[in-house]
Amino acid sequence: MFKKILIANRGEIACRVIKTARKMGIATVAVYSDADAQALHVQMADEAVHIGPAPANQSYIVIDNIMDAIRQTGAEAVHPGYGFLSENKLFAEALEKEGVAFIGPPAGAIESMGDKITSKKIAQEAGVSTVPGYMGLIEDAEEAVKISNDIGYPVMIKASAGGGGKGMRIAWNDDETREGFQSSKNEAANSFGDDRIFIEKFVTQPRHIEIQVLADSHGNTIYLNERECSIQRRNQKVIEEAPSPFLDEATRKAMGEQSCALAAAVGYTSAGTVEFIVDGERNFYFLEMNTRLQVEHPVTELITGVDLVEQMIRVANGEELSLKQSDIGINGWAMESRLYAEDPYRNFLPSIGRLSRYRPPAEVADGPRVVRNDTGVYEGGEISMYYDPMIAKLCTWGATRDEAIDGMRDALDAFEVEGIGHNLPFCSAVMDHPRFVSGEITTAFIAEEYPDGFEGVTLDDAMLRKVAAAAAAMHRVAEIRRTRLSGRMDNHERHVGENWVVSAQGTDYPVTIAADRDGSTVSFDDGSSIRVSSDWTPGDMLARISTSEGPLTMKVGKITQGFRLRLRGADLKVTVRTPRQAELAALMPEKLPPDTSKMLLCPMPGLIVKVDVAVGDEVQEGQALCTVEAMKMENILRAEKKAVVSRINAGPGDSLAVDEVIMEFE
Amino acid sequence: MTDVLQELEERRAAARIGGGQKRIDAQHARGKLTARERIELLLDEGSFEEFDMFVAHRCTDFGMEKNRPAGDGVVTGWGTINGRMVYVFSQDFTVFGGSLSETHAQKICKIQDMAVQNGAPIIGINDSGGARIQEGVASLAGYAEVFQRNIMASGVVPQISVIMGPCAGGAVYSPAMTDFIFMVKDTSYMFVTGPDVVKTVTNEVVTAEELGGASTHTKKSSVADGAFENDVEALAEVRRLVDFLPLNNREKPPVRPFFDAPGRVENSLDTLIPANPNTPYDMKELIHKVADEADFYEIQEDFAKNIITGFIRLEGQTVGVVANQPMVLAGCLDIDSSRKAARFVRFCDCFEIPILTLVDVPGFLPGTSQEYGGVIKHGAKLLFAYGEATVPKVTVITRKAYGGAYDVMASKHLRGDFNYAWPTAEIAVMGAKGATEIIHRADLGDADKIAQHTKDYEDRFANPFVAAERGFIDEVIQPHSTRRRVSRAFASLRGKQLKNPWKKHDNIPL
């Protein structure tokens, strides 16, 4: 076995690989850029080598720098993680030349599968079902339009070297094709250094289901079942699960066997993923093969008990697979939520900054509810603009899908992240969405269910009563503590009463609290009551409350006369007042926030790349107004309604903060 | 006999209705509560004891003798806030627009006198059209009597003013002399002369809100210490503030049971200071992570944001915090921030509240506007305030402590009790670049030499150890242990006794 391996990556995946290597008794080498000098993967590794400035194209994807780090540390093998150099055949070749093992597939397999056009041809030849599309290279936007018309709209425009949603656009007409072709090309050039583009039929009502394969260099190939990754936003996966709630055994077997055939056809070794699009009739079409460890691999590990990283290392070491296809079963159900540093209330725009608080839920390795969190960040760490905004993968396992979902709900509620915008509330919302719970999902789920973006969750009455009962009991504890202040008048202490009015989401709940040694019984005016108990004390930012209606986990902040409570995707201002205070508070006027409807606000910190309109222009709904670049993604800001531009406050090259006014309308 | 009891209840009821239901409704329609409703919200339920409910004015001019409502436009008395005694007056806008008459003033003076005698804070709720014009000079005299008592009470008991309606002309000077002024957004304003007079005299057209609203006084003038959305929120937050304050200058600050380990370690503080010395960071994160339960009551949050002032608790006991804020103007000292912090430090010193100072200061803001504005004397106020303060003083230097600003920010030389520095601290006369350009002026043309000199200077001086070698820093501490170190420091100072020489009063550079 290798004595020492180098991980040519960063973030959670570098940490993930280090964990397995450590378990196997292998020493680890981390590499890091200027921006990552204090990163978690650097702290976890046995050694760390600096490989250049913050931008990935000057550090993590510079092959020479990685090769230097290998020579410097004497690493015998390299795990590339995902992204960066993981699917770069030049890197695999460079390693081969140096006699260093690549913990991944052979360069030839990377090359043939790395190019989407070639891979599709090979897949067809191997008997894998594929989607209609244009395989050749496309010169310019006009040719793209012609091809799109031949295939028939809608079409998907993709970067040949792309992945993870970068350089991908869907077009429904000629204009969108032109625009999408250009922006895909730009993004592809920036992100992958390869601006080749291809176009294929966009399958509607599709599910994204992928097969995990594992092959050794002795001719053995097995599949480890599927993962369903249909919950995507702009082709970026958000929630994954294994198995899929949609596949039957026959389809699973057919997909698995075709995937193995494809792997065998290209001489594949190591772990790989064959992605399919599956339509409502369970017809499946090959999309692409990812010749690397996939981000969402933990869900497969959780249902199969196989450590994929360990298998990759063993295969790279020339070992024969100890697992046979018959060893692979499906044990229970696993869910994964990707935690992105993206603000769901601002249309998921990237958010950067310092993690002033970062407390993931406790990991639970076994038992009826497994919780696993693959993370690459820590409290006090910095989320920079240079890399992928994904900062953690929270996974839960249960015997059934419902149990895995329920575990995820609680784990998300217990996950504390402050200092940056993040999508935890959105993941919570999906976990409670009836359509998601039913399993009736497609890749259009987010677009269809959240057409106007995400504005937080409104809790139903039953849940709100639970929250109200908890808040009343918590407020009473806090108020009683206040009466214990020194300097009070003896025998004339304040008496904290039993009657309160809890207000949340515009509803008032008059309650009466009867407290005893073990907790409180909170009675509502309709005669119902909820029993609550908790070890929460004032100042705790996470409250775990047992109630007679089930447990509650909430993030707690203080507001005047109450709490800010966050749970299940809701962000509530809950006030708890005495009946008299509530009566007087009801006299207070409601204040409306200032009107920003006639302004275009910068939705994220970023750089203005282009302004498409001038003062006096009449713009139509949906018309592009300007482009803001943030975290290497070009975001086109569009007019929300027909209007006339009255003032433009920013131009190309301007660096703007969140909510700065870019332009105003009449 | 029953008739007499009955009559009392009737008289009370008449007094309680103030200016009548119609005016009460009008008050509510403006988004404002009545004087009595406000007292109800301010004090513990059922704790209010009223004085002078039946006082009526003695004016006989302009037909005033025909209208003599009981209470005369102000409700006064005492009660408790979380069981601790406070005195309160609350002006009743429904009675003569809350205007101040001779008897109205006498009612306020009575509770001011009692508060000083009995050692309890005074909270004034202001909602008054101004002087009772019909009473002429008697009303003016009334104001002055109140002012005189504000002055005598200053530093003896905490005085808090809550502006919940108009407060104009001479009336502004009573709140102005109290320790804290809070306003309610959109429904309160304060000015010496109103928009009409302003227009007549200067031709400026300005609304009452622009001239003296909550936004003006919390952001521009710094007259107010905070502003709240409405009456309910304002009074709840005043209760919260009172929980931090001692009742008078003879008592120690209050202690409250706490649920936060004094030894709590915060590893994230080890990465609070960015690698680049010119990159800002949020000092409030440090304050929240040091404080019990992350509970921070900020004073003057919207003014001179380059310095942060407010109250926290450590081991349940109130501590005043003064901290440079690198996010704003690099945390430098200037006229506004010096004035703001100086006043806060003096308040803490008056009432035996220990002071925690968190330092990251690159120096004083340069420029003509600062010099013409008298930054020398304003900066000296903060220096003076720290130097004369005898309360426990603990200082933590997180990063820069340059030049005269280092001296000012509760340095060891100003009788700092504990002066800690993080390993990232740089205590020096100035930044490396500036220092090098002066010391090595001869090499200014040679970029390489200057770069080398700058590096040498950084290596030698951009650290806390030169100061530590001289004992100006008591200890260099790990950022993650700041809460434990600071808590223990204040714990050790609970018996501190320090007296300044006798004097009539000092002559702080006003």
TrEMBL record, chain A:
Which PROSITE patterns does the record cross-reference, listed alphabetically?
ATP_GRASP, BC, BIOTIN, BIOTINYL_LIPOYL, CPSASE_1, CPSASE_2
What positions does the domain Lipoyl-binding occupy?
A: 587-666
Q: In which pathway does it act?
A: Metabolic intermediate metabolism; propanoyl-CoA degradation; succinyl-CoA from propanoyl-CoA: step 1/3
- Residue stretches making up the ATP-grasp domain: 120-317
According to the UniProt entry, its GO molecular function terms are: ATP binding; metal ion binding; propionyl-CoA carboxylase activity
Tell me its EC number(s), please: 6.4.1.3
Q: What is the enzyme's class at the highest EC level?
A: ligase
* Phylogenetic lineage: Bacteria, Pseudomonadati, Pseudomonadota, Alphaproteobacteria, Rhodobacterales
Record-given protein name = propionyl-CoA carboxylase
* Domain Biotin carboxylation: residue ranges: 1-451
GO annotation (BP), single? lipid catabolic process
Automatic annotation (TrEMBL), chain B:
Q: List the GO molecular function terms.
A: acetyl-CoA carboxylase activity; propionyl-CoA carboxylase activity; transferase activity
Q: Which family does it belong to?
A: Belongs to the AccD/PCCB family.
Top-level lineage group: Bacteria
Protein's name according to its UniProt entry: Propionyl-CoA carboxylase beta chain
- Any one cellular-component term (Gene Ontology): acetyl-CoA carboxylase complex
Residue ranges of the CoA carboxyltransferase N-terminal domain? 1-257
Q: Which PANTHER family match?
A: PROPIONYL-COA CARBOXYLASE BETA CHAIN (PTHR43842), PROPIONYL-COA CARBOXYLASE BETA CHAIN, MITOCHONDRIAL (PTHR43842:SF2)
Task: Tell me which Gene3D superfamilies the record gives.
Answer: 2-enoyl-CoA Hydratase, Chain A, domain 1
Task: Please provide the record's keywords in A-Z order.
Answer: Ligase, Transferase
Span of domain CoA carboxyltransferase C-terminal:
264-504
- Which InterPro entries does the entry link to? AccD/PCCB, AcCoA_carboxyl_beta, Acetyl_CoA_COase_Trfase_b_su, ClpP/crotonase-like_dom_sf, COA_CT_C, COA_CT_N
GO BP terms in the entry: carbon fixation; fatty acid biosynthetic process
